[in-house]
Amino acid sequence: MSAVPHLTFDVSRLGMIEGHLVVPKGADCEALSLPVISLNKGEGPRLLITGGCHGDELEGPIVARRLVDWLLETQTCGRVVIVPVLNPPAVQASSRNTPIDGLNLNRVFPGRADGSVTERIANAVSRLLLPMADTIFDLHSFGPMWEFPPATTTHPLADPDLMARTIRMAEAFKLPMTMVWEHPETPGMLDLVVQSQGKVFVCAELGGGTVSAEGLAIYEAGLRNALIALGLVEGEAEYPTFRHKKSTQILETQRSSDELKSPASGIFEPRCSVLDNVHEGDLIGILHPMGSLSTDAIDLRAPEMCIVYAIRSGAYVNINEGVALLARPLKR
Amino acid sequence: MSAVPHLTFDVSRLGMIEGHLVVPKGADCEALSLPVISLNKGEGPRLLITGGCHGDELEGPIVARRLVDWLLETQTCGRVVIVPVLNPPAVQASSRNTPIDGLNLNRVFPGRADGSVTERIANAVSRLLLPMADTIFDLHSFGPMWEFPPATTTHPLADPDLMARTIRMAEAFKLPMTMVWEHPETPGMLDLVVQSQGKVFVCAELGGGTVSAEGLAIYEAGLRNALIALGLVEGEAEYPTFRHKKSTQILETQRSSDELKSPASGIFEPRCSVLDNVHEGDLIGILHPMGSLSTDAIDLRAPEMCIVYAIRSGAYVNINEGVALLARPLKR
């Protein structure tokens, strides 16, 4: 058995090929075979679409698979490589991190050949998949415990040309929200590795809460819009309908300081919806301590005029747990 | 310390009283104090509203609390006793069952005074709360992993008079769905204890998936409608808007045989929404086995003309796990 990661097919072959990315076995588990589809129409843009980095975000794996049939009918040039599930053990466990070693795949890039299974997956992706593409779409979501609009996201980038190209690509999805979020430097993220190679990386955060047929249709429309914008497919993009609107807005936020945290442990009651515009003092949610009743409820109010772009599902939360995330229109 | 469950207030007192139901300590944990609100305007219907039986169904605890302020302004007669959280340890753990003894509170009624904590809660509720009411609303939901419409539910009852009164009460919520479901006899459910006393019991299943501000507004409207129908409050009921419609339908189902199960383990992709009418052969969802790609996807189709009343969130499911629940209009 080979101890290096490898693909079971020749990526230069034209047409549709189904194969696998093999991640070698290690001390902690057997080899993994990640299904990969290559749709190759020759010259043109080279795109990689990945999903299932976190095992409790299933929008990506489902939508990535859906694109295959559509691309078979519509693709005119270039190559699209699709890996619906980057982290099969995490998906099978419905857990964010890999259950075998407890690691978050999106914190260990570029990975290690002799590391634990999560690091070996990252290593295989970095060595074999990333070199095949100029543009990468990584499909995430906010997970089941948040209300979150279908969105593409990116971070401020030092290179102004790469920043402009990335934002242009993110906006081409025409999802209800395009988000530029700044958060504390987090080593090991896939985007950092890709961007350090000068490539365009767009992270799609395909909603939160229940993964529904309605939501999936919106996410698929966003991906199709992006493939049309890249020139892989001929056609016209359309704004998907979300909350009765067909529109997009580009927002910015500081992930840490724009987080509304629970002032106590108790039951969080959401009082607004995602993409609601709120003014200073508007009610965003209520925290109900458990041991007593209405007299002790704590109102959580907007600190300033802003847009609520994510809000926790009503649930028991601990003190200092984030319950709402706030943003403002991007100043270009 | 008293070893019997007790209330910290006199339920015959008029006006609003906040107090506690004390569940005695046992070998497994200290005494619990469950917040209780009594709103007493004298003669009239006697209603008990309970929520938080299962710790991952937070719609009930939130909506139950919300009613207090409204009742203070609007109640004209009778008594409403509200217990937002029946099972505080389960709510704090966000788990269906009580984490301390692993028991499902809705399977241990009428409980045991010398049992484990879940049995002691059931015992306290049976002895002290149930005798105070003629009508009981128990607020549940389908939990975070299902799409489910706001609904009231009941079971076929042997007593035709009680059945008629129960259905009348369930329909008075005017939620999008009123469900009569038959499932295998399950001992220990709260409804069975209440119904054996000849009282009206309505289980509200307040949706599934994310607990959102939008959903909570629908559930609150349903509860208000029911309180108006009971005569506790004067006013006019209104159909809440759900999926662009203001309507209700009454359905019936056999919980076990009307369940569409996953034919294999893999990623379930929902292809329809709750309350969709489907014909025989219509696509309800797709099961994607993990190890391979599109060629092995399994279509899950409607076995006959029916209404999809619940559908799983897109997620990894095991073989034989339920992924959709089907119903038909009730034959009266």
Q: How is this structure best described in words?
A:
The structure is a homodimer of 332-residue chains. In chain A, strand 4 (46-51), helix 1 and strand 5 (79-83) form a beta-alpha-beta unit. Chain A contains 6 helices and 19 strands. The relative contact order of chain A is 0.13. Chain A has 332 residues and is an alpha+beta fold. In chain A, helix 1 (59-74) crosses helix 6. Chains A and B meet through strand 3, helix 1, helix 2, strand 7 and helix 6 of A and strand 3, helix 1, helix 2, strand 7 and helix 6 of B.
Mean pLDDT of chain A, rounded to whole units? Answer: 94
Largest interface: A-B, 52 and 52 residues
Q: What oligomeric state is this?
A: homodimer
What is the approximate shape of chain A? globular
The value of Rg of chain A in angstroms is 20 Å
Q: Say how many strands of chain A there are.
A: 19
The low-confidence parts of chain A are: none
Termini distance of chain A?
Answer: 53 Å
Helix percent of chain A reads 10-25%
* Percentage beta strand of chain A: 25-35%
**SSE class of chain A:** alpha+beta
Largest sheet, strands/sense/barrel of chain A: 15 strands, mixed
